[in-house]
């Protein structure tokens, strides 16, 4: 277990982003794009990979937790307006799930954002993503103004 709440984070670069992209491609199986029956599973997986890839290419931050020489988890985030930072995507590699890393990853990312000038940290979370939601709660986040996102497919 990750007893120390704060863990070192490394910013992704061209030498390690591919590993994070593979983790993104193979994760998020219970989230909205995988639950949408009109989206093929391989396209749903590709959606998360491309989300991370495009965000990285435009200069958003990908904070990595490295454990035993591999990526154990990541948080994709960027600065917003009014001294706020926004978490867009986060993931714990399956081998590291259930060990308390999510709490430490969120708390450490929040501290990194604060140290870089953010006064507020915001995120959007699917209510169906209980591991992420619980990770945020364990790290001390509060939820305000919840919204729901629905897909409407035009054929």
**Proportion of beta-strand residues:** 15-25%
Number of strands: 5
User: Helicity range of the residues?
Assistant: 25-40%
Low-pLDDT residue intervals, each spanning 5 or more residues: none
Could you explain the architecture of this structure?
This protein has 155 residues and is of the alpha+beta class. It contains five helices and five strands; from the N terminus they run E-H-H-H-E-E-E-H-E-H. Strands 1-2-3-4-5 form a five-stranded mixed β-sheet, with helices on both faces. Strand 4, helix 4 and strand 5 form a beta-alpha-beta unit. Helix 4 packs across helix 5. The chain is globular, with a radius of gyration of 15 Å.
In short:
It contains five helices and five strands, in the order βαααβββαβα. By secondary structure, it is α+β, with helices and mostly antiparallel strands.
Name its key features.
alpha+beta; five-stranded mixed sheet; 5 helices; 5 strands; 21% strand
Give the helix/strand layout.
Elements: E1 10-11, H1 17-25, H2 32-35, H3 41-57, E2 61-67, E3 70-79, E4 84-92, H4 101-115, E5 120-123, H5 130-138
Parallel strand pairs: 4-5
Antiparallel strand pairs: 1-2, 2-3, 3-4
Helix pairs in contact: 1-3, 4-5
């Amino acid at each position: 277990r990750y007893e120390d709440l704060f863990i070192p984070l490394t910013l992704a670069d061209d030498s390690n982003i591919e590993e994070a992209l593979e983790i993104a491609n193979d994760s998020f199986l219970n989230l909205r794009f995988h639950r949408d029956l009109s989206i093929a599973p391989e396209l749903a997986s590709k959606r998360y990979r491309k989300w991370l890839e495009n965000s990285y290419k435009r200069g958003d931050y990908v904070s990595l937790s490295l454990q035993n020489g591999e990526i154990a988890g990541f948080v994709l985030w960027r600065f917003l307006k009014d001294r706020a930072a926004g978490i867009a995507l986060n993931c714990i590699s399956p081998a590291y799930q259930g060990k308390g890393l999510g709490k430490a990853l969120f708390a450490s990312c929040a501290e990194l954002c604060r140290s870089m000038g953010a006064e507020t940290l915001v995120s959007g979370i699917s209510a169906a993503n209980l591991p992420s939601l619980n990770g945020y709660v364990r790290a001390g986040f509060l939820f305000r103004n919840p919204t729901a996102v629905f897909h409407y497919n035009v054929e």
